[in-house]
Design a protein that fits this description.
Structural class: alpha/beta
Bound molecules: NADP nicotinamide-adenine-dinucleotide phosphate
Order of helices and strands: EHEHEHEHEHEHE
CATH topology: Rossmann fold
Strand content: 15-25%
Shape: globular
Oligomer: single chain
Largest sheet: 7 strands, parallel
CATH class: Alpha Beta
Number of helices: 6
Number of strands: 7
Length: 220
């Protein structure tokens, strides 16, 4: 029960990897906050969790929604011990010249702006609490033809992770990213089951003070 009474906020928790992570944290005693845009998907996952949890629909790319959600979580739960920035999208496959500008913008908004907004809002709270763990879900796909928007967004997420970790050096707010392998989810057909890929995320979320920070950890 590594997360007994810890408040763990998982974005993109209504499907795939996020749902598997929400289940794993709940099984280890966490109070899980589940976010995503589709309330019914979040409720389906939350129903199966048992224990205490909170369904909080939001679009991670919309600053006012993130701000309101952060206020609600802090008001109701008092703190956030662990943030898992998992929500993400993979826009249609296309070369750079064929990529719709709107698809590029959506990828950056969801995969980079979303984690940035949540980190921006929660880091001051974690600093004030004297502790916090953030795990950003990146991807091994960083330089792949026909996936430039997705690749660029995940490279940016790695940079955001490393820069923030450096800013927080000397504190007990530890920020890392993970690169899960191909997993069979709504985003991608085929690959590992998401449940097989959660161990390192839990380990990063459970790090002791002085542990790893600013790293992008590959999940085999
Ligand atoms: N599957 C793979 O092979 C693979 C490999 C490496 C990394 N990843 C990463 O793993 C993470 C999870 O992906 P997945 O494979 O589990 O795919 P998924 O099942 O499609 O999950 C993505 C989740 O993000 C949520 N989401 C999307 N846009 C959002 C927004 N604007 N605001 C809030 N929530 C949003 C979706 O819910 P709503 O639509 O309800 O909002 C969905 O639950 C992503 O960051 C992805 O890049 C996946």
């Amino acid at each position: 029960m590594r997360f007994k009474n810890k408040v763990v906020w998982v974005t993109g928790a209504g499907s795939g990897y996020g749902a598997a992570l929400a289940r794993a944290f709940a099984a280890e005693g966490a109070r899980v906050v589940l976010s995503g845009r589709r309330r019914e998907r979040l409720e389906q996952v939350a129903d199966g969790l048992g224990g205490l949890n909170r369904v909080l629909p939001l679009d991670v790319s919309v600053s006012v929604e993130v701000e309101e959600a952060v206020e609600e979580v802090l008001r109701e739960e008092g703190r956030v011990d662990v943030l898992i920035n998992n929500a993400g999208i993979f826009p249609s496959k296309a070369t750079v010249e064929a990529t719709a500008i709107a698809d590029f913008d959506r990828a950056m908004a969801t995969n980079v702006r979303g984690p940035f907004l949540l980190m921006r809002a929660l880091i001051p709270r974690m600093k004030a609490a004297g502790t916090g763990r953030i795990v950003n879900v990146s991807a091994p796909l960083k330089h792949f033809p026909t996936a430039s928007a997705y690749c660029a967004s995940k490279c940016a997420l790695d940079s955001l992770t490393k820069a923030a970790a450096l800013e927080l050096r000397g504190t007990d707010v530890l920020i890392n990213a993970v690169e899960p392998p191909m997993m069979d989810t709504e985003m991608h057909a085929g690959g590992k089951k998401p449940e097989e890929c959660i161990g390192p995320v839990l380990e990063l979320a459970a790090l002791a003070a002085g542990g790893l920070t600013g790293r992008v950890v590959k999940i085999e």
